[in-house]
Amino acid sequence: MATSATGNRNRAPGSTLVELLVGIAIASVMLGAATLAFPRSDARRADQAVARAQALVELACERAELGGRDIGIVVERRRIAFASLQDGAWQPIVDSPQEALRPRTLDEAVTLALRVDAPLPLPSQPETSVQVACMASGELTPFTLGLSGPARQRRSLRGDAGGVRQVRGDAR
């Protein structure tokens, strides 16, 4: 059989199965990287917004129970903020990178709507406007937090004595 200058045998033109598999693996990695690099789908953005809101509310309730101090939640159209009950008055939690419960603005395409089912007696102060509270005793103001995302994606959070959970669909 004839060999080439490098000592390899001549073979018919084409690709081997190994070369084909390596090409598919490289294409798969590139597709995965492109999926992560480009903007998320509307449904995924809505899911991430509701997951972020749920995590923040759960953190506030956990901190209230462990710290023995009530934590209030302020819901605005695109923002969630927190306050701590100190000496009978709500004190806003500072906006600091080290503070996990600093005010958070959600995805710009997401709007929030809060419905409080049975308000707990809370000290009212116009400057904080706390609507929901995680009490140090473990109680939580029953609420439904509706999130309207891009392309009319709707998600909602339900908070009550059983905790905070996601509910698919319209928050009404």
Give a written overview of the molecule.
- With 172 residues, this protein is of the alpha+beta class.
- Helix content is 27%, strand content 27%.
- It contains two helices and nine strands.
- The chain has helices at residues 17-37, 42-67; strands at 71-75, 79-86, 89-92, 104-105, 111-116, 132-134, 143-148, 154-160, 163-168.
- Strands 1, 2, 3, 4 and 6 form a five-stranded antiparallel β-sheet that branches.
- The chain starts with 16 loop residues before the first helix and ends with a strand.
- The model has no long low-confidence stretch (mean pLDDT 81).
Question: Mean pLDDT across all residues, rounded?
Answer: 81
* Structural class computed from helices and strand pairing: alpha+beta
Helix content: 25-40%
- Compute the separation of the termini in Å: 79 Å
Question: What letter string, H or E per element, gives the SSE order?
Answer: HHEEEEEEEEE
Number of DSSP strand runs:
9
Largest sheet: 5 strands, antiparallel
Give the overall shape.
Answer: elongated
Low-confidence stretches: none
**What's the Cα radius of gyration?**
26 Å
Roughly what fraction of the amino acids lie in strands? 25-35%
Output the number of helix runs: 2
